[in-house]
Structure formats: structure tokens, C-alpha cells
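hiii so my PI (J.) wants the whole complex modelled not just the main chain, which honestly fair. so below is everything: two entries, each one labled with what it is. i double checked the lines twice but i was tired so who knows lol
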Amino acid sequence: MSKFRVVHYINQFYAGIGGEEFADHKPEVREGVVGPGMALAGAFGDKAEIISTVVCGDSFFNENVAEAKKTILDMVKKANPDIFIAGPAFNAGRYGVACGTICEAVKEELNIPVITGMFEENPGTDMFKDKMYIVATKPSAAGMRDAIPVIAALALKLAGKEKIGASVEEGYLPNNTRVNFFEKERGSRRAVDMLIKKMAGKPFVTEYPMPDFDRVEPNPAVNDFKSITVALVTSGGIVPKGNPDHIESSSASKYGEYDITGVNDLTAETYETAHGGYDPVYANADADRVLPVDVMRDFEREGIIGKLHNKFYTTVGNGTSTKSSKQFAAEYAQKLKNDNVQAVILTST
Amino acid sequence: MVKEIERAGIPVVHVCTVTPISMTVGANRIVPAVAIPHPLGNPSLSAAEEKQLRRKILTTALGALSTEVDGQTIFEVK
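here's the output for the full assembly
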């Protein structure tokens, strides 16, 4: 049997072009294997061959979706693969969204089977898990070794148009499609096992997880800004120069609260970003580009808003867990309430 | 974070570049920004033009906060 033809999609980082400063890299196609494709090729053995690798910068993709999609679709069409593999993207948000978006396009428009891999908290997961097979990975590239064999095995099945089993068998994230299979143990036995584990305080895995419908109803609109205090909050990591509280550049474990009484403009000498997930050049030169204190002060002076709150809250939204972010915000939201802040502008990079 | 602020009872607007992410995390009032490394700026403009652009985005943000919404809404910057 001839080998399956594979096209692999990766970002600028995994292609070895560079980090955030190269995130604007335009789509390009390279012959054969690049970066993590090496491990994939190893897992495929003689069953499949990566004929080409498409490389695109994460910022370029997300800021120019239509153009990136069109260019990459042309590249994939030319290569005419049996399967298209993107990533894995782990917990990299823009990379995950790019992988999902391009996979969806390849599947819908070229009718070629697709597969990608992500950590369950990657925003791309919720957006695309019911549209394609997304293999569950660890949050960081340290999970590459575990992810590759699972992706490769499922990719071969998809390319060969074999029957795909349930998510627990194949290792993809549950996609709301029910697949029947026979458990080794009968239900009563599994239920009792689970109960015993629960009573012993040991971890157990439910077979019927509750869906996560965590939505918050919008608050009523603000009637009159002239009499109220508005606060700025950011996940873009803006901090006083020197990052006094040492907020981590990724997977932040804390948030900062900083006083901006008398500050009318953030300058390169006074503020910077601690964020390690985007090119910091522009924010370091003028942090108002992320935390717009200058214009908010103008609004205050012109009487458009009553007052800009004298404190801002900031953290680094880069691989930071949903749990931490939730906890940070729940805490400072109470502070904002106690300080009678009546509206918040939250900026994200 | 947007959701926790909203949950605390404070109206909040999310200004961000990748709006699909904002939709996924559950922000209710969303204003699209310029670019990931400079959401409220554009280094290729003059300082004055850039500040004008920032003002326009923030005016849209205040507009979003003063608009009643019934679920997730994206407010384009005009």
C-alpha cells in the first residue's frame, strides 16, 4: 500500500523562525518535515509521509484571517494530502485558534480529513472541538512526546477512513458526538468502584460530566458616565517599570494593583509589559497602547467620565490557568466594588 | 476575568483583538482592538493620530457600556 500524504501546519515558533517578534510571519510552505513534524514522521513509520509543512505566524493568522486562510488553502490544495495535521498547539491561545480555523477550512472547503491537538483550556478547544478531532494534550510543549503518538495514530485512521472510536479510546477531546462501545466492567461494578474511591477521598473519573454552562448575564448599561468612576483592567501585563511584584511572563500566579494617582501618561521610562506571549516592543515604548491611561485622563478632564479610578489591576494572560484568572478577578472585582467603581474597561492583547 | 467582574455586578467592556476568544470566554460587551501587541495603538501612525485612534476605540467602549445588551454583542469601532 502506498503511503498516506500528510501536510503539517505549524507556527513560526515551532518552525524555528523565532518567538513573538516573528509572529507576523506570512504563510510559507516548505518541503518535507519541519520541527515537530520530525516526531510525527517517526510515529508514522512507513505508513505516511509529511510531504510539506505550512508555516504561519500566530499574529499574522489571527489578524489577517481571510488572507491567511486563502493562502494556506491554496498551498494545501496544491499538495493534495490524504490528511491535514495542525499543531499541536498545547495551551497557546492564538496558535490553537489558528490550528482550529485552518483545519475547519481545509475540512469544509477541500474535503480533506483534519486533526489537531490542544490543551483543554485552550480557547481554540471550545471553538472547534465539535467541528474536528482535537487530541487532548498537556498545557505545554513538554507534553509533545505524549501527544505525538496519539495524533499520529488517529491521523492514520482518519486518512484510511477507518471507523473512529469514542473519545476515551482514541484520546481526542469529547466532541458531543456519542459513540457506543463495550466497557470491560459492567455498570454496577464501575459505579461501586467509583463510590469506594470517592468515600476514600481518592480521585475518580465520572462517566457523566456535567456540562459547563458558565455564562454571566450582562449588567444593565451605564446611564451617565459624568458622575461615575471608571476603572482600567488588563490581561496585557502592564506594570510599573521593573515589574516590582515580579508578575510572571507566563502562567501568572498573581495580579498587580497599582496606584495611578497623578499619572496622566504611561511612558517608556515609567511603565512596561511583563507579558511573555506577545512582542513587547510596542507596549514598552508606550504602555498606553495596552492600558489607555492617557485618553482616559482626557475623558476625565473633559468631563466625559466622572473619574478614572486611581488604581488599575493587571496580570499576564499567557498560559495563565482559567482557575487563577477567575480567582484574581473575583478578588479585585470586590475591591473595585468597595471603591464604588461603576464601570470597567478590560483590555487584552 | 471579564466574567468575574460582570458577576460582581459591574458593567464591563472587553477591548481585545481576537474577538472569537472573547466570545468563547463569555464577555458580553466586546470592542475589537487594533492588533495583538498594540490593541489600543498603532505605531505606524503619528503620535497625534495614534492617540486619536485610541480615543475612537475608547469612545466605542463607553458607547458599549451605555448600551443595554441581551447577550454577547460586538461593537465595531466606527
